[in-house]
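Table S2 (text version). Query chain:
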Amino acid sequence: MGSTDSKLNFRKAVIQLTTKTQPVEATDDAFWDQFWADTATSVQDVFALVPAAEIRAVREESPSNLATLCYKAVEKLVQGAESGCHSEKEKQIVLNCSRLLTRVLPYIFEDPDWRGFFWSTVPGAGRGGQGEDDDENARPLAESLLLAIADLLFCPDFTVQSHRRSTVDSAEDVHSLDSCEYIWEAGVGFAHSPQPNYIHDMNRMELLKLLLTCFSEAMYLPPAPESGSTNPWVQFFCSTENRHALPLFTSLLNTVCAYDPVGYGIPYNHLLFSDYREPLVEEAAQVLIVTLDHDSASSASPTVDGTTTGTAMDDADPPGPENLFVNYLSRIHREEDFQFILKGIARLLSNPLLQTYLPNSTKKIQFHQELLVLFWKLCDFNKKFLFFVLKSSDVLDILVPILFFLNDARADQSRVGLMHIGVFILLLLSGERNFGVRLNKPYSVRVPMDIPVFTGTHADLLIVVFHKIITSGHQRLQPLFDCLLTIVVNVSPYLKSLSMVTANKLLHLLEAFSTTWFLFSAAQNHHLVFFLLEVFNNIIQYQFDGNSNLVYAIIRKRSVFHQLANLPTDPPAIHKALQRRRRTPEPLSRTGSQEGTSMEGSRPAAPAEPGTLKTSLVATPGIDKLTEKSQVSEDGTLRSLEPEPQQSSEDSSPAKGEPSQAWREQRRPSSSSASGQWSPTPEWVLSWKSKLPLQTIMRLLQVLVPQVEKICIDKNVDPPVWYDTDVKLFEIQRV
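Corresponding structure-token output:
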């Protein structure tokens, strides 16, 4: 049958379904088979031929028909799993039903009245799969669907290669088949790498898409109470009820970690032939993340040694059923498995950073956020893996891509989730001594980043990128400042030698954060100054000898430390600092700030629409249509850039929903407490001013400043600012 006829028949069936007001009997196979038996529709066709409005119309006007459609489609999948899908027609029916359910399920999930539909039992759908009418033995529709998907993901000649020489008498192999022998890819716990098969990959992808759709019901539910609730779809799929749990977990993990997007290294290979593996790898990563989204408060949680312990929040509730995917992940322990996983994730994370002489000649993957979440889960659930990463020099192959993504996403509000996961991973790693030690490795690779040129170590790269995020990111990153500086504090005792560029960046941050208006404008702002002082103290105490650049920068900016030591605490001074700020229109501005240009290479923040956060990869407007809300200029002053009429853009209307406006309303302190807002008092300032850890630095200045001044007088010259530093007039870097 031609594909056009196929589509027409399918569309005709959809129209009949929407126009029939009377229930169609489940036994009317002639009607129901139109949806899957005689058609060969692609997933794109299904989405085009089954419009959202029509699904909702059937749901409202003839709910029994929608229920029967779902029940019959699941029944076909169960039959396909039982028979082993030997004929091409059976395979096509399974794919059609899978696509149809992927299309329809979200419209069932969005309606509260249908909430329990898939968890209700259907007469005739017995747990034994033989169609018993025994109600006690009946399976909920959701369970039947999930078990059918699991079986179909290990179906010989459909999603895995058959090990049989002939197809004669192979019906029994579905039940006796040991799916551990059919794992999709070599890697953890499996040495054999099956021959790549485009058709099998496509079929796996269709089924994983349906599986993700099943798991997505959680997105339509109202936020659960604090006790934490498990996703019943995930809970069942990752339980002992699923006999394929181990091979499927291993297949997904190995498929992700074995993937090499560059292929055979042939330039432009991704343009010459379609890479059918990448969509499968992306789906596999997403399924892993969702199945590993495990709330330790409501079920068993793994401990360091890989065993599991119940940590129910309320003693009255027993620990929830064990999630086998979390269990298996926590029990991986062989060094070669850890190496395979780490190498694979590092290779994929580094892929967008690959520099080639031929533009666009290598394939660039798009699922970095999924990879970072997966890496986080690995470190979180398997402490042995975390320690392996930290003692491996490959940890820098994870660090550099994370810094690249953080720098790249810092001005894009739709990627705030990527910023959070990247920072949290670095925070986790920074808690271990080995990470700080590894940062001393020289940084020689030139990754395309719009950051100042420097010659130094990976520690320099980390601090320079963090400085960039703080000074030219958007306002929604403000809550991450504490985390960023905590990471620097954690690694500071191990940093043997910071470059002059990096030393200046750290002093620049201190200068910006120690202005009186910033310190007095929010109850927590002074924490940032404490973090920076702790960094300086750690380096002076533990790594003084190699850090002459930082010591020199501290001497040059000594006035900042003296100002902190002499911070005014009287009410008039506090009032004056806040008044000075209130006269300016934006939250990060300061009287006397220079009109000079802001930091080099900073990109403007893309404003978010009020109350929304777009997580899709929608193209952001051109640079000329956007305005930077606030930045820190190189002289250490916080300044704002008012939205001005765009010169290069015809559309000069200001972007709506400017984030700085909301931030200003939220953060502006009130000089009177009548409004109930927080207000700085002399007692409050004194409470933390007395704890500022300035002694070490003051002692250092006391000893060294006279010596430096003596050198200057003896030679009658200024200090050698650029002497012995790697000066370059300019260097062109790809942005």
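Notes on Table S2: Residues 357 and 727 are 26 Å apart (CA to CA). The chain has four domains: 1-123+138-155, 180-194+231-296+321-370+384-391, 392-494, 496-581+681-734.
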